Amino acid sequence: MSGWLSALFDSLDPFCGPVGIFTWLGGTGLISCGDSGWGDEIAFGVKVTISLALATLPVGLLIGFLIALAAQSEEKLLRLAAGIYTTIFRGLPELLTLFIVYYGAQMLIQSVLAFFGYDGRVEINAFVAGLVALAVVFSSYSSEVLLSAFRAIPRGQYEAGDALGLRRGKTMLLIVLPQLIRIALPGMTNLWLILLKDTSYVSVIGLADIVRQTGVAARVSKEAFFFYFLACMLYLVLAMISSFGLGFIERWAKRSEVSR
Protein backbone atom coordinates (compact mmCIF):
# COMPACT_ATOMS: atom_id res chain seq x y z
CA MET A 1 0.00 0.00 0.00
CA SER A 2 2.81 2.41 0.86
CA GLY A 3 4.41 1.80 -2.56
CA TRP A 4 1.06 2.47 -4.24
CA LEU A 5 0.61 5.72 -2.31
CA SER A 6 4.17 6.79 -3.11
CA ALA A 7 3.56 6.17 -6.82
CA LEU A 8 0.31 8.16 -6.63
CA PHE A 9 1.99 11.13 -4.98
CA ASP A 10 4.84 11.02 -7.49
CA SER A 11 2.37 11.07 -10.38
CA LEU A 12 0.62 14.11 -8.88
CA ASP A 13 3.86 16.01 -8.25
CA PRO A 14 3.29 19.49 -9.80
CA PHE A 15 7.01 19.89 -10.48
CA CYS A 16 8.60 16.60 -11.48
CA GLY A 17 5.53 14.39 -12.01
CA PRO A 18 4.43 13.23 -15.47
CA VAL A 19 2.60 16.53 -16.00
CA GLY A 20 4.89 18.59 -13.75
CA ILE A 21 6.08 22.01 -14.84
CA PHE A 22 9.78 21.09 -14.70
CA THR A 23 9.10 17.88 -16.61
CA TRP A 24 7.47 19.83 -19.43
CA LEU A 25 9.66 22.92 -19.46
CA GLY A 26 12.96 21.47 -18.30
CA GLY A 27 13.56 18.93 -21.03
CA THR A 28 17.23 18.06 -20.67
CA GLY A 29 18.18 21.55 -19.51
CA LEU A 30 19.10 23.14 -16.20
CA ILE A 31 15.73 22.60 -14.53
CA SER A 32 15.06 19.11 -15.82
CA CYS A 33 14.24 16.44 -13.26
CA GLY A 34 16.68 13.66 -12.55
CA ASP A 35 20.47 13.63 -12.61
CA SER A 36 20.76 15.93 -15.61
CA GLY A 37 19.21 19.04 -14.04
CA TRP A 38 18.24 20.84 -10.84
CA GLY A 39 14.49 20.33 -11.05
CA ASP A 40 14.25 17.85 -8.17
CA GLU A 41 16.32 20.02 -5.83
CA ILE A 42 14.38 23.20 -6.58
CA ALA A 43 11.05 21.36 -6.28
CA PHE A 44 12.16 20.16 -2.84
CA GLY A 45 13.04 23.76 -1.92
CA VAL A 46 9.55 24.92 -2.90
CA LYS A 47 8.00 22.22 -0.72
CA VAL A 48 10.19 23.22 2.22
CA THR A 49 9.23 26.89 1.81
CA ILE A 50 5.52 26.11 1.66
CA SER A 51 5.75 23.66 4.59
CA LEU A 52 7.60 26.17 6.75
CA ALA A 53 5.10 28.97 6.01
CA LEU A 54 2.08 26.73 6.63
CA ALA A 55 3.57 25.36 9.86
CA THR A 56 4.43 28.85 11.11
CA LEU A 57 1.01 30.37 10.40
CA PRO A 58 -1.11 28.61 13.08
CA VAL A 59 1.64 28.91 15.71
CA GLY A 60 2.08 32.62 15.03
CA LEU A 61 -1.68 33.21 14.98
CA LEU A 62 -2.18 31.43 18.30
CA ILE A 63 0.61 33.38 20.00
CA GLY A 64 -0.61 36.62 18.42
CA PHE A 65 -4.16 35.97 19.63
CA LEU A 66 -2.94 35.40 23.18
CA ILE A 67 -0.80 38.55 23.04
CA ALA A 68 -3.80 40.55 21.78
CA LEU A 69 -5.89 39.23 24.66
CA ALA A 70 -3.14 40.19 27.11
CA ALA A 71 -2.84 43.67 25.56
CA GLN A 72 -6.48 44.45 26.33
CA SER A 73 -6.52 42.73 29.70
CA GLU A 74 -7.45 44.58 32.86
CA GLU A 75 -4.23 43.28 34.45
CA LYS A 76 -1.49 45.88 34.15
CA LEU A 77 1.31 43.29 34.18
CA LEU A 78 -0.24 41.42 31.25
CA ARG A 79 -0.55 44.62 29.24
CA LEU A 80 3.05 45.52 30.06
CA ALA A 81 4.32 42.07 29.07
CA ALA A 82 2.40 42.20 25.78
CA GLY A 83 3.80 45.65 25.02
CA ILE A 84 7.38 44.53 25.72
CA TYR A 85 6.94 41.41 23.56
CA THR A 86 5.61 43.29 20.54
CA THR A 87 8.17 46.08 20.88
CA ILE A 88 11.10 43.65 20.95
CA PHE A 89 10.11 41.38 18.08
CA ARG A 90 8.75 44.16 15.87
CA GLY A 91 11.94 46.13 16.43
CA LEU A 92 14.47 43.38 15.81
CA PRO A 93 15.34 42.43 12.20
CA GLU A 94 13.94 39.04 11.26
CA LEU A 95 17.39 37.72 10.38
CA LEU A 96 18.77 38.70 13.78
CA THR A 97 15.81 37.02 15.51
CA LEU A 98 16.56 33.87 13.54
CA PHE A 99 20.21 33.93 14.62
CA ILE A 100 19.23 34.45 18.26
CA VAL A 101 16.84 31.50 18.18
CA TYR A 102 19.14 29.18 16.22
CA TYR A 103 22.46 29.93 17.91
CA GLY A 104 21.28 31.39 21.22
CA ALA A 105 18.88 28.58 22.07
CA GLN A 106 21.54 26.07 21.11
CA MET A 107 24.02 27.68 23.51
CA LEU A 108 21.38 27.91 26.25
CA ILE A 109 20.44 24.23 25.99
CA GLN A 110 24.13 23.31 25.88
CA SER A 111 24.77 25.30 29.06
CA VAL A 112 21.83 23.73 30.90
CA LEU A 113 22.90 20.23 29.92
CA ALA A 114 26.50 20.98 30.89
CA PHE A 115 25.25 22.03 34.33
CA PHE A 116 23.81 18.53 34.74
CA GLY A 117 27.02 16.91 33.54
CA TYR A 118 26.28 16.30 29.86
CA ASP A 119 29.11 17.45 27.60
CA GLY A 120 27.82 16.26 24.22
CA ARG A 121 27.14 18.62 21.35
CA VAL A 122 23.57 19.83 20.84
CA GLU A 123 22.24 20.99 17.48
CA ILE A 124 18.82 22.52 16.92
CA ASN A 125 16.90 21.44 13.85
CA ALA A 126 17.01 24.25 11.29
CA PHE A 127 13.33 23.81 10.39
CA VAL A 128 12.25 24.08 14.03
CA ALA A 129 14.49 27.11 14.60
CA GLY A 130 13.06 28.81 11.52
CA LEU A 131 9.52 28.03 12.61
CA VAL A 132 10.06 29.46 16.10
CA ALA A 133 11.82 32.61 14.85
CA LEU A 134 9.25 33.35 12.15
CA ALA A 135 6.37 32.54 14.52
CA VAL A 136 7.44 35.06 17.16
CA VAL A 137 7.95 37.76 14.53
CA PHE A 138 4.63 36.95 12.85
CA SER A 139 2.84 36.88 16.22
CA SER A 140 4.16 40.32 17.18
CA TYR A 141 2.63 41.85 14.05
CA SER A 142 -0.54 39.75 14.01
CA SER A 143 -1.23 40.70 17.64
CA GLU A 144 -1.50 44.35 16.60
CA VAL A 145 -3.88 43.47 13.77
CA LEU A 146 -6.00 41.34 16.10
CA LEU A 147 -5.94 44.02 18.81
CA SER A 148 -7.28 46.57 16.33
CA ALA A 149 -9.97 44.09 15.29
CA PHE A 150 -10.92 43.51 18.94
CA ARG A 151 -11.31 47.25 19.45
CA ALA A 152 -13.49 47.52 16.34
CA ILE A 153 -16.07 45.14 17.83
CA PRO A 154 -18.65 47.09 19.87
CA ARG A 155 -18.73 46.44 23.59
CA GLY A 156 -22.42 45.67 23.23
CA GLN A 157 -21.53 42.36 21.55
CA TYR A 158 -20.04 41.12 24.82
CA GLU A 159 -23.03 42.45 26.75
CA ALA A 160 -25.37 40.64 24.35
CA GLY A 161 -23.58 37.37 25.16
CA ASP A 162 -23.97 38.06 28.87
CA ALA A 163 -27.67 38.82 28.36
CA LEU A 164 -28.10 35.45 26.64
CA GLY A 165 -26.52 33.72 29.60
CA LEU A 166 -23.38 32.70 27.73
CA ARG A 167 -20.10 32.27 29.53
CA ARG A 168 -17.32 34.60 28.44
CA GLY A 169 -15.57 31.77 26.58
CA LYS A 170 -18.70 30.93 24.58
CA THR A 171 -19.32 34.59 23.89
CA MET A 172 -15.81 34.81 22.48
CA LEU A 173 -16.24 31.66 20.38
CA LEU A 174 -19.77 32.19 19.06
CA ILE A 175 -20.11 35.98 18.84
CA VAL A 176 -16.75 37.74 18.92
CA LEU A 177 -14.47 35.37 17.01
CA PRO A 178 -16.48 35.26 13.74
CA GLN A 179 -16.49 39.06 13.63
CA LEU A 180 -12.82 39.18 14.59
CA ILE A 181 -11.85 36.95 11.65
CA ARG A 182 -13.80 39.08 9.18
CA ILE A 183 -12.30 42.35 10.43
CA ALA A 184 -8.72 41.10 10.76
CA LEU A 185 -8.59 39.14 7.51
CA PRO A 186 -7.34 41.95 5.20
CA GLY A 187 -4.45 42.70 7.55
CA MET A 188 -3.69 38.99 7.97
CA THR A 189 -3.57 38.61 4.20
CA ASN A 190 -0.70 41.09 4.04
CA LEU A 191 1.07 39.41 6.95
CA TRP A 192 0.81 36.01 5.25
CA LEU A 193 2.50 37.37 2.12
CA ILE A 194 5.23 38.89 4.28
CA LEU A 195 5.66 35.57 6.08
CA LEU A 196 5.96 33.75 2.76
CA LYS A 197 8.82 36.04 1.76
CA ASP A 198 10.47 35.92 5.19
CA THR A 199 10.92 32.16 4.87
CA SER A 200 13.87 32.98 2.59
CA TYR A 201 15.89 33.93 5.70
CA VAL A 202 16.16 30.29 6.77
CA SER A 203 18.55 29.64 3.90
CA VAL A 204 21.35 31.21 5.99
CA ILE A 205 21.07 28.44 8.62
CA GLY A 206 21.22 25.67 6.06
CA LEU A 207 17.55 24.86 5.46
CA ALA A 208 17.01 23.75 1.87
CA ASP A 209 14.35 26.29 0.84
CA ILE A 210 13.92 27.98 -2.53
CA VAL A 211 16.72 30.52 -2.01
CA ARG A 212 19.26 27.97 -0.81
CA GLN A 213 18.51 25.43 -3.53
CA THR A 214 18.62 27.98 -6.33
CA GLY A 215 21.76 29.50 -4.78
CA VAL A 216 23.55 26.13 -4.82
CA ALA A 217 22.43 25.55 -8.41
CA ALA A 218 23.64 29.03 -9.40
CA ARG A 219 27.10 28.49 -7.88
CA VAL A 220 27.58 25.03 -9.39
CA SER A 221 26.20 25.79 -12.86
CA LYS A 222 27.53 29.38 -13.07
CA GLU A 223 24.05 30.44 -14.22
CA ALA A 224 23.29 32.88 -11.40
CA PHE A 225 20.88 35.11 -13.30
CA PHE A 226 18.80 32.18 -14.54
CA PHE A 227 18.37 30.51 -11.15
CA TYR A 228 17.79 33.67 -9.15
CA PHE A 229 15.26 34.79 -11.74
CA LEU A 230 13.62 31.37 -11.36
CA ALA A 231 13.51 31.92 -7.58
CA CYS A 232 11.79 35.28 -8.13
CA MET A 233 9.20 33.67 -10.38
CA LEU A 234 8.50 30.91 -7.88
CA TYR A 235 7.89 33.41 -5.08
CA LEU A 236 5.65 35.48 -7.36
CA VAL A 237 3.63 32.39 -8.31
CA LEU A 238 3.21 31.47 -4.63
CA ALA A 239 2.13 35.04 -3.88
CA MET A 240 -0.41 35.01 -6.73
CA ILE A 241 -1.86 31.67 -5.61
CA SER A 242 -2.03 32.96 -2.03
CA SER A 243 -3.75 36.18 -3.10
CA PHE A 244 -6.33 34.24 -5.08
CA GLY A 245 -7.02 31.85 -2.22
CA LEU A 246 -7.14 34.56 0.43
CA GLY A 247 -9.43 36.66 -1.75
CA PHE A 248 -11.85 33.74 -1.90
CA ILE A 249 -11.69 33.32 1.89
CA GLU A 250 -12.32 37.05 2.38
CA ARG A 251 -15.41 36.94 0.16
CA TRP A 252 -16.64 33.88 2.06
CA ALA A 253 -16.09 35.61 5.40
CA LYS A 254 -18.11 38.63 4.27
CA ARG A 255 -21.06 36.61 2.98
CA SER A 256 -23.13 37.43 6.07
CA GLU A 257 -22.78 41.20 5.71
CA VAL A 258 -25.96 43.06 4.92
CA SER A 259 -25.98 44.42 1.38
CA ARG A 260 -26.06 48.16 1.22
Report what the structure shows.
With 260 residues, this protein is mainly α. It contains 10 helices and no strands. It has a domain at 53-207: MetI-like fold. The chain is 75% helix and 0% strand. The radius of gyration is 23 Å and the shape is flat. InterPro entries: AA_ABC_transptr_permease_3TM, ABC_transp_permease_HisMQ, MetI-like, MetI-like_sf.
Short synopsis of the structure:
By secondary structure, the chain is mostly helical.
What is the N-to-C order of secondary-structure elements (H for helix, E for strand)? HHHHHHHHHH
**Largest sheet: number of strands, sense, barrel closure:** none
Radius of gyration: 23 Å
Mind telling me which CATH architecture of the domain at 53-207 this is?
Answer: Orthogonal Bundle
What amount of the residues lies in strands?
under 5%
GO molecular function: transmembrane transporter activity
Protein name: ABC transporter permease
Organism: Aliirhizobium smilacinae
Membrane topology: Multi-pass membrane protein
List the helices and strands and how they pair.
Blueprint (H helix, E strand, L loop, with lengths): L1 H10 L9 H6 L12 H33 L4 H16 L2 H22 L10 H27 L2 H9 L4 H31 L11 H12 L2 H30 L7
GO cellular component, one term: ATP-binding cassette (ABC) transporter complex
Subcellular location: Cell inner membrane; Cell membrane
Membrane topology: Multi-pass membrane protein
